[in-house]
Protein backbone atom coordinates (compact mmCIF):
# COMPACT_ATOMS: atom_id res chain seq x y z
CA UNK A 1 0.00 0.00 0.00
CA UNK A 2 1.42 3.38 -1.05
CA UNK A 3 0.28 6.82 0.12
CA UNK A 4 0.11 8.32 -3.39
CA UNK A 5 -0.46 11.95 -2.38
CA UNK A 6 1.11 13.34 0.78
CA UNK A 7 -1.56 13.37 3.54
CA UNK A 8 -0.78 16.99 4.42
CA UNK A 9 -1.43 18.01 0.82
CA UNK A 10 -4.73 16.11 0.79
CA UNK A 11 -5.72 17.68 4.11
CA UNK A 12 -5.09 21.15 2.71
CA UNK A 13 -7.02 20.43 -0.49
CA UNK A 14 -9.96 19.11 1.51
CA UNK A 15 -10.24 22.43 3.35
CA UNK A 16 -11.00 24.14 0.03
CA UNK A 17 -14.02 22.04 -0.86
CA UNK A 18 -17.16 23.04 0.97
CA UNK A 19 -20.68 23.17 -0.47
CA UNK A 20 -24.09 24.54 0.50
CA UNK A 21 -25.15 20.91 1.04
CA UNK A 22 -22.53 20.44 3.74
CA UNK A 23 -24.81 18.78 6.31
CA UNK A 24 -25.95 16.02 3.96
CA UNK A 25 -22.42 15.46 2.66
CA UNK A 26 -21.11 15.16 6.21
CA UNK A 27 -23.79 12.56 6.97
CA UNK A 28 -22.89 10.56 3.86
CA UNK A 29 -19.21 10.71 4.77
CA UNK A 30 -19.91 9.68 8.35
CA UNK A 31 -21.89 6.67 7.13
CA UNK A 32 -18.99 5.67 4.89
CA UNK A 33 -16.62 5.78 7.85
CA UNK A 34 -19.04 3.83 10.05
CA UNK A 35 -19.54 1.10 7.44
CA UNK A 36 -16.00 1.22 6.01
CA UNK A 37 -17.66 1.95 2.67
CA UNK A 38 -15.24 3.25 0.00
CA UNK A 39 -16.77 6.55 -1.18
CA UNK A 40 -14.67 8.80 -3.39
CA UNK A 41 -14.43 11.75 -0.99
CA UNK A 42 -14.41 15.52 -1.55
CA UNK A 43 -11.36 15.85 -3.77
CA UNK A 44 -12.41 13.19 -6.26
CA UNK A 45 -16.02 14.36 -6.13
CA UNK A 46 -15.00 17.92 -7.00
CA UNK A 47 -12.75 16.62 -9.76
CA UNK A 48 -15.63 14.62 -11.27
CA UNK A 49 -17.87 17.68 -11.19
CA UNK A 50 -15.27 19.82 -12.98
CA UNK A 51 -14.67 17.14 -15.61
CA UNK A 52 -18.40 16.89 -16.29
CA UNK A 53 -18.74 20.66 -16.50
CA UNK A 54 -15.77 20.90 -18.88
CA UNK A 55 -17.62 18.93 -21.56
CA UNK A 56 -21.09 20.25 -20.70
CA UNK A 57 -22.20 16.73 -19.77
CA UNK A 58 -25.97 16.35 -19.74
CA UNK A 59 -26.22 12.56 -19.66
CA UNK A 60 -23.98 10.49 -17.38
CA UNK A 61 -23.90 6.78 -16.57
CA UNK A 62 -22.38 5.36 -13.40
CA UNK A 63 -21.19 1.76 -13.21
CA UNK A 64 -21.60 1.37 -9.45
CA UNK A 65 -23.24 4.19 -7.51
CA UNK A 66 -23.24 3.10 -3.88
CA UNK A 67 -25.63 5.34 -2.00
CA UNK A 68 -25.29 8.33 -4.28
CA UNK A 69 -22.13 10.12 -3.18
CA UNK A 70 -20.57 10.38 -6.64
CA UNK A 71 -24.01 11.03 -8.15
CA UNK A 72 -24.27 14.07 -5.90
CA UNK A 73 -21.22 15.64 -7.55
CA UNK A 74 -22.34 14.75 -11.06
CA UNK A 75 -25.83 16.13 -10.34
CA UNK A 76 -24.24 19.52 -9.65
CA UNK A 77 -22.79 19.49 -13.16
CA UNK A 78 -25.70 18.27 -15.31
CA UNK A 79 -28.10 20.99 -14.23
CA UNK A 80 -31.89 20.97 -14.13
CA UNK A 81 -32.32 19.30 -17.51
CA UNK A 82 -29.54 16.73 -17.20
CA UNK A 83 -29.66 13.15 -15.96
CA UNK A 84 -27.32 10.93 -13.97
CA UNK A 85 -28.15 7.27 -14.59
CA UNK A 86 -27.07 5.27 -11.54
CA UNK A 87 -26.72 1.55 -10.92
CA UNK A 88 -26.19 -0.54 -7.80
CA UNK A 89 -26.83 -4.15 -6.87
CA UNK A 90 -27.70 -3.30 -3.24
CA UNK A 91 -31.33 -2.19 -2.83
CA UNK A 92 -30.52 -0.53 0.48
CA UNK A 93 -28.03 1.72 -1.31
CA UNK A 94 -30.73 2.76 -3.78
CA UNK A 95 -33.05 3.74 -0.93
CA UNK A 96 -30.32 5.67 0.88
CA UNK A 97 -29.40 7.53 -2.30
CA UNK A 98 -33.00 8.65 -2.75
CA UNK A 99 -33.22 9.76 0.88
CA UNK A 100 -30.03 11.83 0.74
CA UNK A 101 -30.52 13.35 -2.70
CA UNK A 102 -34.19 14.18 -2.11
CA UNK A 103 -33.20 16.29 0.88
CA UNK A 104 -31.07 18.57 -1.27
CA UNK A 105 -33.38 18.63 -4.28
CA UNK A 106 -31.13 16.59 -6.58
CA UNK A 107 -33.20 13.42 -6.89
CA UNK A 108 -35.09 14.65 -10.01
CA UNK A 109 -31.75 14.72 -11.84
CA UNK A 110 -31.07 11.06 -10.98
CA UNK A 111 -32.38 7.85 -12.51
CA UNK A 112 -31.43 5.04 -10.15
CA UNK A 113 -31.54 1.37 -11.24
CA UNK A 114 -31.22 -1.61 -8.93
CA UNK A 115 -29.30 -4.52 -10.45
CA UNK A 116 -26.12 -5.57 -12.19
CA UNK A 117 -24.48 -2.48 -13.70
CA UNK A 118 -23.47 -4.16 -16.96
CA UNK A 119 -27.00 -5.42 -17.58
CA UNK A 120 -28.49 -2.02 -16.83
CA UNK A 121 -26.02 -0.31 -19.17
CA UNK A 122 -26.80 -2.66 -22.04
CA UNK A 123 -30.47 -1.69 -21.84
CA UNK A 124 -29.76 2.03 -22.13
CA UNK A 125 -30.59 3.72 -25.42
CA UNK A 126 -28.57 6.48 -26.98
CA UNK A 127 -25.14 7.86 -26.15
CA UNK A 128 -23.66 9.27 -22.97
CA UNK A 129 -21.49 12.33 -22.48
CA UNK A 130 -19.62 10.81 -19.56
CA UNK A 131 -19.34 7.25 -18.24
CA UNK A 132 -17.97 6.58 -14.77
CA UNK A 133 -16.73 3.22 -13.50
CA UNK A 134 -16.38 2.24 -9.84
CA UNK A 135 -17.47 -1.39 -9.48
CA UNK A 136 -15.68 -4.68 -8.71
CA UNK A 137 -12.20 -4.22 -10.13
CA UNK A 138 -12.18 -7.57 -11.88
CA UNK A 139 -14.88 -6.24 -14.21
CA UNK A 140 -12.91 -3.18 -15.35
CA UNK A 141 -11.66 -4.53 -18.70
CA UNK A 142 -15.19 -5.66 -19.65
CA UNK A 143 -16.69 -2.33 -18.63
CA UNK A 144 -14.17 -0.36 -20.69
CA UNK A 145 -15.18 -2.33 -23.78
CA UNK A 146 -18.88 -1.80 -23.01
CA UNK A 147 -18.48 1.91 -22.29
CA UNK A 148 -16.85 2.58 -25.66
CA UNK A 149 -20.02 1.51 -27.45
CA UNK A 150 -22.13 4.29 -25.94
CA UNK A 151 -19.73 7.16 -25.34
CA UNK A 152 -20.12 10.11 -27.69
CA UNK A 153 -17.20 11.73 -29.48
CA UNK A 154 -15.75 14.36 -27.18
CA UNK A 155 -17.05 12.43 -24.19
CA UNK A 156 -15.16 11.21 -21.12
CA UNK A 157 -14.69 7.80 -19.60
CA UNK A 158 -13.52 7.98 -15.97
CA UNK A 159 -12.64 5.09 -13.66
CA UNK A 160 -11.67 5.11 -10.01
CA UNK A 161 -9.00 3.03 -8.22
CA UNK A 162 -6.71 2.85 -11.25
CA UNK A 163 -3.56 2.96 -9.13
CA UNK A 164 -5.05 0.47 -6.66
CA UNK A 165 -3.16 1.96 -3.72
CA UNK A 166 0.14 1.36 -5.49
CA UNK A 167 -0.39 -2.35 -6.19
CA UNK A 168 -0.11 -1.68 -9.95
CA UNK A 169 3.53 -0.68 -9.45
CA UNK A 170 4.64 -3.91 -7.82
CA UNK A 171 6.70 -6.40 -9.81
CA UNK A 172 5.12 -9.27 -7.91
CA UNK A 173 1.33 -9.00 -8.11
CA UNK A 174 -0.30 -8.53 -4.73
CA UNK A 175 -4.00 -9.35 -4.46
CA UNK A 176 -4.82 -9.02 -0.79
CA UNK A 177 -8.40 -7.92 -1.56
CA UNK A 178 -9.65 -10.25 -4.31
CA UNK A 179 -7.48 -12.49 -6.47
CA UNK A 180 -7.11 -11.16 -10.00
CA UNK A 181 -8.15 -7.60 -9.32
CA UNK A 182 -4.70 -6.04 -9.64
CA UNK A 183 -4.10 -7.72 -13.00
CA UNK A 184 -7.57 -6.64 -14.17
CA UNK A 185 -6.85 -3.01 -13.33
CA UNK A 186 -3.49 -3.14 -15.08
CA UNK A 187 -5.11 -4.68 -18.17
CA UNK A 188 -7.85 -2.04 -18.10
CA UNK A 189 -5.30 0.79 -17.91
CA UNK A 190 -3.18 -0.72 -20.69
CA UNK A 191 -6.17 -1.10 -23.01
CA UNK A 192 -6.99 2.58 -22.58
CA UNK A 193 -3.38 3.65 -23.05
CA UNK A 194 -3.17 1.67 -26.30
CA UNK A 195 -6.50 2.78 -27.78
CA UNK A 196 -5.80 5.20 -30.64
CA UNK A 197 -9.30 6.67 -30.43
CA UNK A 198 -8.65 8.11 -26.97
CA UNK A 199 -6.32 10.43 -25.09
CA UNK A 200 -5.96 9.73 -21.39
CA UNK A 201 -4.47 10.88 -18.12
CA UNK A 202 -4.33 9.36 -14.63
CA UNK A 203 -4.97 11.82 -11.83
CA UNK A 204 -3.13 10.41 -8.77
CA UNK A 205 -5.43 11.99 -6.16
CA UNK A 206 -6.68 9.46 -3.60
CA UNK A 207 -6.39 6.15 -5.51
CA UNK A 208 -5.94 7.35 -9.07
CA UNK A 209 -8.64 8.21 -11.58
CA UNK A 210 -8.10 7.50 -15.23
CA UNK A 211 -9.74 10.01 -17.57
CA UNK A 212 -10.06 9.03 -21.23
CA UNK A 213 -11.23 11.53 -23.84
CA UNK A 214 -12.86 10.13 -26.98
CA UNK A 215 -11.43 11.81 -30.09
- Give the total of beta strands: 7
The largest sheet, given as strand count, sense and whether it forms a barrel, is:
7 strands, mixed
CATH class: Alpha Beta
What is Rg? 16 Å
Q: Taking all residues together, what is the mean pLDDT?
A: 95
How much strand?
Answer: 15-25%
Instruction: Write down the secondary-structure element order.
Output: HHHEHEHEHEHEHEE
**Termini separation:** 34 Å
**CATH fourth-tier homologous superfamily:** Vaccinia Virus protein VP39
Layout of strands and helices, then pairs:
Elements: H1 7-15, H2 22-35, H3 41-54, E1 59-63, H4 69-78, E2 83-88, H5 91-103, E3 110-114, H6 117-122, E4 128-133, H7 140-148, E5 151-159, H8 181-193, E6 198-203, E7 209-214
Parallel strand pairs: 1-2, 1-4, 2-3, 4-5
Antiparallel strand pairs: 5-7, 6-7
Helix pairs in contact: 3-4, 7-8
Briefly summarize what is shown.
The chain has helices spanning 7-15, 22-35, 41-54, 69-78, 91-103, 117-122, 140-148, 181-193, and strands at residues 59-63, 83-88, 110-114, 128-133, 151-159, 198-203, 209-214.
If you had to describe this structure to a student in words, what would you say it looks like?
This protein is an alpha/beta fold and 215 residues long. It has one domain: Vaccinia Virus protein VP39 (Rossmann fold). Helices cover 41% and strands 20% of the residues. It contains 8 helices and 7 strands. It has a 7-stranded mixed sheet, with helices on both faces. The protein is globular and about 45 Å long. 40% of the residues are buried. The mean pLDDT is 95.
Task: Throw out a few tags for this protein.
41% helix; 7 strands; Rossmann fold; 215 residues; 20% strand; 8 helices; single chain; alpha/beta
Amino acid sequence: MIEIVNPKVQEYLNTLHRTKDEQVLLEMEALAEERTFPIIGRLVGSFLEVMALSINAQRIFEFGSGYGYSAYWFSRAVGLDGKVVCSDSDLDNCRLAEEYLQRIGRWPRVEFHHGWAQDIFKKQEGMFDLIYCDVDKGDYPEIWELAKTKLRKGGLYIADNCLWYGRVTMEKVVDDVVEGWTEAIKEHNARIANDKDYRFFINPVRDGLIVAYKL
